[in-house]
Amino acid sequence: MNSDPAYIALDLVDIAVAALLIGVHGALSLLLRLNIGRHLIVSAVRMVVQLGLLAIILESLFSLRDPLLTAAAATVMILFAGYEVTARQTRRFEGWWTYGIGAGSMMMAGVLITLFALTTQVRPDPWYDPRYALVLLGMILGNTMNGVSLGLDRLLTSASRERPAIEARLALGHPRNDAMREVAREAVRGGLIPIINTMAAAGVVSIPGMMTGQILGGVPPVEAAKYQILIIFLIAGGTGLGVITAVIAGARRLTDERHRLRLDRLEPQRRK
Hints:
By secondary structure, the chain is mostly helical. 75% of the residues lie in helices and 1% in strands. The chain has a two-stranded antiparallel ribbon with strand order 1-2. β1 and β2 (8-9) form a beta hairpin. α1 (12-32) runs antiparallel to α2 (37-64), α3 packs across α4 and α9 packs antiparallel against α10. The longest helix is centred in the C-terminal third of the chain and has 33 residues, at 221-253.
């Protein structure tokens, strides 16, 4: 392990030693017959490959500082995030609706909040510098993805479960917005729980990842805390905007102009 006054550099041996922990978990899985050893290994390998490729790509983007390449990388991130939202749903809309709602809401929230941060707080020169733009977008997008995924999943499963109550309200003459209001509220609450927990626990239960990384990289703790607070506020803003947008769009798709509940627009429920 090499070191200098700024930070402690890691080599491949250090990473390999840490990877032994995954091997221990794999052995325990076999011993206890948990049947998760293969998933652990595959996930670990995927993580290493993905982060390695990301590091290589980011180095190239940071040196080029091309706005078109930065926009292209951001688009790829959003498209993959939309896929992850779709993959995590217990119930889905037919066709591309789940993907479209998820990716669209994340794109709007992620791009707006990232532009807000780049032009008002961080202010790099140029403003589209990928060293800041892509890193900020990635953090906002990752957390917004979790919120949107949870919100949509809660909305679709709750609407299916509460079908008799929703249709009863519609039969009594309630407009579709009123009939879906409680289900939508619960979906938004479910989508916001992770970021609320993150804010509540930060600094008491845990030291957030960005702050930890900056401190290990030699940044004074006070400055690292400032950046972490800024990032959490941005993540909260992006998550809230994305979840609300996705839930509203999903609730509209679940009903029609004649104020009917349209569960026929969902794919058949998948068996586990």
